[in-house]
Amino acid sequence: MSRWSLVLAGLLGLASMQARAADPLSVMSFNIRLPAESDGVDYWETRKPLAVRMLREQQPDVIGLQELVKAQADYLARELPQYAWFGRGREADGGGEHMGVFYRKDRLKVIESGDFWLSDTPDVAGSITWGHPHPRMVTWALFEQRSDGRRFYLFNTHLPYRDEDEAARLKGAQAIARHLATLPDDVPVVLTGDFNTTPDSDAHAVLASTLQDAWTTAPRVEGIDATFHGFTGKADRRIDWIFVRGAQLESITSVTTRWNNRYPSDHFPLVATLRLP
Q: Signal peptide location in the record (predicted)?
């Protein structure tokens, strides 16, 4: 091989490495709102085509969903065959709301996954010990990108919602932080969820002490910061967050798309774009 052939091969190899390094990862957090007949015109049967349409438009690589029940997950899986999903219900028998995670089968593969409950007995399914009325949990996975073998952890959660549950939300955030502290330092972490409290809370402070809040640290931010709008489109609280550790954040946006004045959920989804090292 000539000298110039070697130079050209080296340049092509460098370009290939740079292209692989530049492959972005798109992460969505989405409280899909469980099916509740009290929602009237915004009942799930009306909203479900909108949810599918929004997901087809956004095409995130991985989605942390909250308030998901199995019937919703099964519908999404049928309509979005490029995705696979996992997660169990929060109740002791595996029923109830899921912290379900959908992911692009062509982009990612699951190396390992699991769940733990936000209680004094995190390995006991359905456990509650902090005074809130429903089990709260985390579903997680270690993912690997098919294109280059890069790995990252995703954690997905939903904290208690009542005003009087602030102490339980803090305990939940502390439990998540303790779990994240046991992970390898060289593997990036993404945390998605509906935290049911605002960024001035102690729960947020605990998580932000070791993780980046994508909304306040990403170099490009689009949309409005508040996420809960109760099907009105007029959001008043930033209670849905995406946190990152060990990855380069590029952007985050709130997805406020509507069709005929109807929304896919009572929360605006968030989409963060990042790059793994």
A: 1-21
Residue type at 172 in one-letter notation: G
> Could you give the dihedral angle defined by the CA atoms of residues 171, 177, 182 and 186, in that order, rounded to the nearest 10 degrees?
170
End-to-end CA distance of the chain: 33
**Cβ neighbourhood burial of 209 (10 Å; 0-12, 13-18, 19+):** exposed
pLDDT tens profile 158-203:
999 999 999 999 999 999 999 999 999 999 999 999 999 999 999 9
The per-residue pLDDT for range 143-159, each reduced to its tens digit, is 999 999 999 999 999 99
Contact by Cβ (8 Å): 225, 266: no
The domain ranges of the chain are: 23-275
Residue 3 has pLDDT above 80, yes or no: no
49 φ, ψ (degrees, to nearest 5): -65, -30
Model confidence at 1: pLDDT above 90: no
- State the amino acid at position 239 in one-letter form: I
